[in-house]
Write a structure and sequence with these properties.
Length: 69
């Protein structure tokens, strides 16, 4: 997976990102975990989410999926 540096920082993210607008709407927490794991397995490290997605559930579900086990 190709990566790019964000701005003038040390933050590097994948050029392909995962839109998280369906987390908390069409995808429940277990489905979100599976989707996020597949993205990580593919080398994706850029996740696009917003407080308004899924009534706030998108960020909550994404955080749960990325949390250490």
């Amino acid at each position: 997976m190709d990566t790019r540096t964000v701005g003038r920082s040390d933050l590097t993210v994948s050029v392909a990102g995962l839109g998280c607008n369906n987390f908390g709407m069409r995808a429940d927490v277990d489905q979100t975990r599976a989707i996020v794991q597949a993205a990580l397995d593919a080398g994706i490290t850029f996740f696009d989410t917003a407080r308004m997605y899924g009534g706030g559930k998108s960020e909550e579900f994404l955080g749960a999926a990325l949390a250490p086990v």
